[in-house]
Every structure is written in C-alpha cells, then in structure tokens.
Amino acid sequence: MRSLLTAMIIPAAMLAAGCGKVQEPGTAMEKAAETAVEASPAATAAGYVKGPTYFDLPEHKGGRLDLAAYAGKPVMVMFFTETCPYCRKAAPFVQSVNAEYGGKGLAVMAAAHEREAAPAARFVKDFGITFPVAYDAAATARAYQTRGVPYLFLLDRQHKVYNLWAGYDHSFDKEIRASIEEVLKKS
Predict the structure, then answer these.
(1) pTM of the predicted structure, to 2 decimals
(2) Domains and CATH numbers, the chain
(3) From start to end of the chain, where are the E strands?
(4) Residue 30, SS3?
C-alpha cells in the first residue's frame, strides 16, 4: 500500500510509461486538498469525511463528479489528457476494469486535465467509455501529486490511496487487477 501523505518515489521505468511533461512536486498534498475542500460545495453524502483525495469536478456531459457520491465504495480514478498516447493505451484497459469490477462494487472514473469538456467528450467517444469522466482536473491532479499522465489511483472505501500507477503499460494489468481484488475484499 502506498500513501500520498508521504514522499512518493516513482521508479524511472514507471515514469517512462507516461507522457507529457514530468512535473516537479508542487505544494504539499495536504495544503492543496484543504484548498479543494474549502472550495467545494457543502452538500456531501451523510457522514462523508472529505480527505486529501476529495474532489468535485465538472463532468463532460454536464453536472458534477463528486467523490463524496461514492462514499463507502472503492474507486479507481485515471488522470489523463486527450492526446497522450499512453492515456489512449490505458483507456481500453480502464474500460475493461469498469466492465469486470463495476458490478462487484468498484467505481471507475477519469479526469481530464483539459479545461474544456470537448476533449474529454472526444476521449469518451473514441474508446466507448461508460464510466463518469470529468474535466478541468489539472489542479486536482497536482493535489494528488501526479508528475505527468496517465496516473491511475486506486482508493479504498474511505477514499485513501490504496495503490497508484504512474504511467501505463500492459505489464501493469496483473498488479492492478490484484490490487482491485484486494481492496474489494476489505470491508
């Protein structure tokens, strides 16, 4: 299990499996998360505690993608950009994860860095994505301390980071599925 509240050490091989500019870590995640929490709407699921991973982003079809709506469910979230080749390579896998584990209790979602809905909508259309996709997520991705795209985060039922993958390669599939199965077994 990896925690974003501690310094992240990401192997160079994993970073090589991503694209885009690798960014140096910005502000501390706690500070960024506090800002995101303060800026979010007060209405959330009863008893939901907004932690460092909380976000509330515009959804590409309209409405909002509020992590609190998934209280008590493990969540996989992918941060991406429309044109990133590794994001485009990851999309079919993430869609297959949604098809395989969505009915077993895993919520799957994605968040595009782009500020407009159109790139996220094109990405959804290109890959037949059936899970929620948000946009304008660059600040949220920075709060998660990403260093490029794609990034896959597996959150447990309390929405704490259970595991993460920087970049994407088919060789990650087995480990990702094993982590999903572990997090689904935990109560």
Answers:
(1) 0.80
(2) 27-37+52-185 (3.40.30.10)
(3) 56-58, 64-66, 75-80, 107-112, 133-134, 151-155, 161-166
(4) helix
Look at residue 187 in the predicted model and tell me its pLDDT. 59
pLDDT tens for 43-71 read: 456 789 999 999 999 999 999 999 999 99
Which two three-digit tokens encode residue 145? 């301390």
For residue 92, is the peptide bond before it cis, meaning its omega torsion is within 30 degrees of 0?
Answer: no
3-class DSSP assignment, residue 168: coil
Structure token pair of residue 37: 């929490």
151-155, strands of its sheet edge to edge: 133-134, 107-112, 75-80, 151-155, 161-166
CA distance 100 to 146: 26
**57: helix, coil or strand?**
strand
| 37 beta partners | none
Tokens matching residue 10: 């990401």
Residues whose CB falls within 8 Å of the CB of residue 19, separated by 6 or more in sequence, listed in order: 84, 85, 86, 87, 148, 149, 150, 167
